[in-house]
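Re: the pair you flagged

First of the two:
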Amino acid sequence: MAVLDGSQVVRHGLFALVVGAVGAVASVVLCLLVNFAYGVVVAHGWLLYALPVLGVVSLLLYRALKLPLDTTTHTVVTDIREDREISPSLAPGILLGTALSILGGASVGKEAGALHMGASLGDLVGRPFKLRSVWKADQVASDGGRTGMNAYAASVGMAAAFSALFFAPLGSAAFVVELSRYKREVVKHLPTMLIACFVAWAGASLVGIGDIIPKVALPTLTWPIVGQCIVIAVCCSVVGALYIKAIDGLQQATKRLSTNYYAWVALGGVIMIVLVTLFGWQAFEGTGGNQLALALAGKQETWAFAIKALLTIICLGLWFRGGEIMPTFTVGALLGASCTVMTGGDAGWSAAVGLVAFFASMSRCPLAAFLTGCEIFGWTGAPLFALGTVVSFSLGRDVGYYGEGATSVLRQTIGHWRNLKRS
């Protein structure tokens, strides 16, 4: 019979309250700083020409903080999966680095900044609590219950910050659980993560600062709507696979050619300057929130998704500091709305389905995509989002921006068990 350690239950509960509040504050500060930076570049468009320098400065900041210059959300997630400590310096590094990128008009998001900050702060906040497993059996079985606690604390902080940013506690908890690929210590302490997520959500909701995505009118599920959802999801699956392959391929190619990240980020800045100036793509600078709102309002251009995807691939592939999630949401919404050329459906709800389906394809986290969509747009859209998620996720190879997906990990685990039985 599983027995709980009462002392650790109290410690975990207090930790959840504190890290939830810290995650909310971190998210609000990130929003205020990044939104200010975007407002400045919109008002002073010439800052685009400073983008190569700003990119280099952000990397110099990482160097000063002794952070790896190739740090991405994938590397942070890998550290969590392998139970490594997350540097406290990552929080200020990604905060200022993202702001510098946005100040120059880079096509990056702030949401991964929240994930990085949350992981860093979660690990830091958890240390004084001397957390161990709440289950006495685990304390006996593995290193006094300390195994996996670094990953657990970082995961809780990550989920809390993400919850505050999108006002989506359930989707955020699911996202981090899926990112950890159902790591045992994270799953077994899920109640603590949920408490932290709801505390962070409440704090951010109180001040009303976060990524507020406009609502859209959602239709009831009929056979024509089913067909339109399937078309959108198939397109999101195909384009999502190409999008992730392009970002990862560009990062890997640059690493093979040279590890001089300063040169690569400067080159990325120059390419952005040329493309934005030559084609007048100023509206596609920044996180993409403005373009997302246009897609949900049905005012997008047919090929707008390709422009945002291209600029995001350049910026992330050439090592600008910043995140991938809001640009991904934007590309998905723009793509979903563009699919109305084929389906003849409403652009607003098509954009919402595209956002959810593209996120599922990109992240390989289907439960998180579904729940986040429901929390953002409303639970009446659950059938639409479930259909879009299942179709988009089920097509193609189970490898996304964060590495192999949960089904790939499950197959490997089953294969490992079979090998053990044979031996």
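Second of the two:
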Amino acid sequence: MSYEVKGWCPGALRPMASGDGLVLRIRARNGRLMPDQAQAIADLSWSHGNGLMDLTSRANLQLRGLTPAGHAASVAILARLGLIDRDAWAEARRNVILSPFAPVGSAAWQLAEAIARAMTEPEAPQVPGKFGFAVDTDPPVLAQTPSDIRLRPQGQEWLIVPDGGDWALAAKDTHEAAARAVDLARWFMQGGVRDGRGRMRDYLRRAPALPHGALPLASFPFSKYPCDGATEAACADPPGPGPAPNGWLLGFAFGQITAAQLARAAALGPLRLTPWRALLIEGAARPRIDGAILKPDDPLLRIHACTGAPGCPQAWADVRALARSLAPRLAPGQSLHVSGCAKGCAYRGAASATLVATTPGRFDLIRNGGTRDPVTLAGLAPDRIPL
């Protein structure tokens, strides 16, 4: 089976067809849902979807299993809730992840809003569909979040850092930081896009001439940021389930959350969508939601698994069922990525063990690498997989 690389992410106005129906992605403003919005989304999942949703690595929420009629009905309701952009173009460009720990109305909050506004203006750079920004807090928590331009506080100022770069731009306030971030995206567009696709890290590998104002990261007086000049395996681990500065984090295996779980969370307070397969409930203390992961050492948190069969038509296997069966065998600190095909969805980094389904009932194993690294053992049956 060959696989198709879409090169774009689904949205609410531009859904993506999957094996279980249409996938509708909700990009909540700054990743925050009020209780009435979250409850309405749970109702939509029950009435028009299959009751399953995804917490994505971009801090979005995906409804699954929609029909075309169910999609149209859902968009109408989401529009009344203020969760729809003016068009699909603006929706795709408003790709800004804000740290879930940023207080509402804070400088980081305002900066994320400013970038989102600027990127949906007609004169904004026409970046590829997966190109995005991450606005962090201090201490940083978005080191492993997929982003092309990272913004982080430096005292009262801001640093604008290209993903994978050893240099940065500096800005004295949020207004200047937003402008410089958009300018950096415009600089990327000068040579970073090929066939409509491109990521900042790949562009920097081609050693382009640096933009005006670029300064070495080493010239700034702060501790080294996780992932600067490093492989993803060397990054700091993201926050796990437990208390957070503004509430409580609950984990969900593979980022999948049910309508019932979302409705229960909505009853407890405003929600912050995170890029860590977790949901933050603002102001909560030790919330109990059936099926949620409560312990930061749960091995399921160290497993990445794509949708797999039957939800994805490109997958060879039900990889989540396999992942659950392998979870008890994971040693402390060991990570696992299980992919239904060679496309490698769900995780782009290196894992202690990566399994790729190649034919029905057979998997290739890659040790300490990703789906594009050399295979260690090929054609393994599920009951013959060594970890």
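The chain has a mean pLDDT of 92.

-B.
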